Amino acid sequence: MKFEELNLNDNILDALDDMRFEECTPIQEKCIPEILDGRDLIGVAQTGTGKTAAYLLPILSLIDDGYYPEDSINCVIMSPTRELAQQIDQAMEGFGYYLSDIGSVAVYGGNDGGRYDQETRGLQLGANVVIATPGRLISHITMGHADLSRVSFFVLDEADRMLDMGFSDDILKIASYLPSNCQIIMFSATMPAKIEQLAKTLLKNPVEVKLAVSRPADNIRQQAYVCHENQKIGILRDLFKAGELKRVIIFASSKLKVKDITRTLLLKKINCGEMHSDLDQSQRDEMMYRFKSGQVDVLVATDIVARGIDIDDIATVINYDVPHDSEDYVHRIGRTARAQRDGRAITLIRGREIGDFMQIEKFLGYPVEKLPLPEGLGEAPEYKPMHTGRGRGDGKSRRRGDKKGKSSEKRKSKSKSKKSAKSDEKAQTAVMKEDTKHLPAEQKPRHRRRSKKKKPEGE
Description:
Layout: H1 10-18, H2 26-36, E1 41-44, H3 51-64, E2 75-78, H4 82-95, E3 104-107, H5 113-124, E4 129-132, H6 134-142, E5 153-156, H7 159-164, H8 168-175, E6 183-188, H9 193-202, E7 207-210, E8 220-227, H10 232-241, E9 248-251, H11 255-267, E10 272-275, H12 281-292, E11 298-301, E12 316-319, H13 326-333, E13 343-350, H14 354-364, E14 369-371, H15 392-403, H16 409-436
Parallel strand pairs: 1-6, 1-7, 2-4, 2-5, 3-4, 5-6, 8-13, 8-14, 9-11, 9-12, 10-11, 12-13
């Protein structure tokens, strides 16, 4: 379907024509008519499906038609991260190019006092559309800078991620300031139970639009190394040894790993930078600008840039750790092979993550190519789910508990706790042996046996 077939106003259509947007994506085709009809809506769709335009275009069209108060905030769009808020703000500038009477302001966290003052002025001057992260918007509401009593549209973008980041209470608090007739629109990449509960709490008889989670693009070459944790840095060194990797994002599970990886690459003279939550907003903006402009070749990051960052020329994505689930895997590697380009995705799988990656392969419907470890790194784990031995001690504890039916509950509980602790200790030992079995004997950790205390003489 073409955009001109939808009931969007001429100013919006002119902007789309300038941007060479003609055909709707599936999510846009299904959502835009429902939003124009005033329905609450929940859309389940991944990043990259065009969901930002799916809600911005009809909302801007309705506001521009003059059906809503000119001297109030008409629309609030919630984003889980500053980066996504900035991207929505950029899309707003493009789609609203011919909407001279509609102003917007992006409100997101950071330690820059000047930025906060700028946001305050934007709110007080009568911005029609507010794009915000939850904590920052609550700060402005508390200070009396934002009045939500006449808001007509409330949008939650990437709602699942907002809940994962602990913003549930903040969202409900912001929603409590909205009028009862506010139209609420929610987009989420997944639909877990907590999202369904949030939808039931906030939305009124919503239309549900669900797109199946798409598989990665065919032009992404997916590969993986099965390795031990202490072999991962060696794999990275080998990947960058030839000096051919450019325009790379490396995703790691924690900011400490991001810092360690960056330090290692810098020692190898790799032109790289890092992105994580320890950086303030100005530092993150500067790093993203340097990466987008090509001043930095490799960006090492936590999941902060996994969704919603629009960079077309990423050649390679490296998952230093296996993503939590299939959707996250698709989001991460979807940063490459954009704009008709080819891309490469490499995942480093340690022994304890093999089962998780097998689930990802089950979702994909095919096995991912496994590469041999570089020479000199030692043996790799066998590609099969690790057995840690958990649960055996609990089973024994239950059987013994059945035989001692006359024992007190307190004694049973104490016995189970001790056996569970022993079971966990055995499991951890098994994992350590698995992760270090490839090492030479002199490098393996030694475990001391506890010596029995001698009885004092005379006893």
